[in-house]
From TrEMBL:
Bias (Gly residues): 107-119
Span list, region Disordered: 106-133
Name the record gives this protein: PhnA protein N-terminal proteobacterial domain-containing protein
Top-level taxon of the source organism: Bacteria
Taxonomic source organism: Saltatorellus ferox
Amino acid sequence: MSLPPDLQARSGGACELCHSTDGVEAHVVSPREEAVAVCGPCRAGVNGALGDLHRWHCLQETAWSEHPAVQVVAWRLLGQIGESWAAELREQLYLDEDTAEWARAGEGAGAGSGAGEEGAPGRPTVDSHGAELHSGDSVTLIKDLDVKGAGFTAKRGTLVKDIRLAEDPELIEGRVNKTVIYLRTEFLKKA
């Protein structure tokens, strides 16, 4: 898909993620019909083939774009990278409510897909009481948990907001004491 005139004008003909001018095309950011301008390597990453993770350090600038479609793509990519710098940057980003909902709606099977939430198909992620959990929910710890490698104990009663589901339905990802960690659902209660 070539660049429509409005996207050409907005991007200046350059990739809105890495600023390359080679092979730039429009990429529709599902589930909406808005597009971003991306080069070939960024298009591959948006479609789930991240390749060399060092190339994605460009998102440290791009994530702060004023354009919601670019913010959504950057937020989704940061969630796929799996490195601490990316998780920290993703946590720092401010997305307005509408943009955050859009970002979460397409997260799961590639940054550009319209797939739903992560997790094993047919097996929901549930808390210790059997309540189904979804990305964006808040949970409370029901037990003190030693966080290995981080040097602190997550105390019982701690509220963990805006969780993300993991591929394993027995785990969720959340931020405790400014650290992104995985938590076992057997130690959580939906807030």
